[in-house]
Amino acid sequence: DLDAPAEAGTVELGEYTHDIALDPYAGRLFVAQDVAKQVSIYQLSPPTGDAVPEPGLLAVIDMTTAPRFLRVDPLRHRLFVVADLPPDEDMLGWMKLHIFDVAEPSAPMALGVHDVPATVSLDLDPLAGVLFLVGLTVDRLYLFDVAAGGLDPIPGDPIDLRALYPQENNTGFQARNLTVDPWRGRVLAARSQGALSEVIALQYAPAIPAAPGDCPPRPDHDALAMVPDGFDVDVPVEDRPNLLDAYAALPDLLTG
Prior knowledge:
single chain, 256 residues, 4-stranded antiparallel sheet
């Protein structure tokens, strides 16, 4: 709340942290501590003057395997935890997704555990109640219905991202840092592939009612359409504007 960002304090978490998720409405922070195999839940309080109160530990969820990634649904008070498989489950390319009810954050309640494709990229549209997940080994985008507290695959074929972004080089394709904008109906990801790196963008009708009482649309695989941009990776890299030179004036390649 100051004129410029300023360090307001440091909290010792005590364990290695792999990911965090924030519920900005309830002021709760969820911390995935992979080495300790636990998820810690903290209550955040707004600043009082120049002082920021230290977060208070509400609960610790003990996991049987290492938690890797977290997402929170602030509307339904659901916590989604992607964790490693148990050692006795030899399922190449799969992980476990745990769902918790955190309406009472000091007493989180387990709702279920589901097998999902191994992933480092997932995000949630809480308005539609849809979880988006990119399969790490198959480069496909999966949609799951999480509105009712479970994890139900949405009908349709998962979206083949390699078919939408087919260019190849000597760097492996990855879709990382999946981010959903529920208000605009956008799914964004960072295509990490060396000189072919760009922003992946898909669009769908946002789940916002047009009038009171309307049932908003829920996206499915067929509803997502690729959003083209002006960064054409089919153009040889030496003929493209270099984003690293964006601090200087860039001439138009056609007009000079």
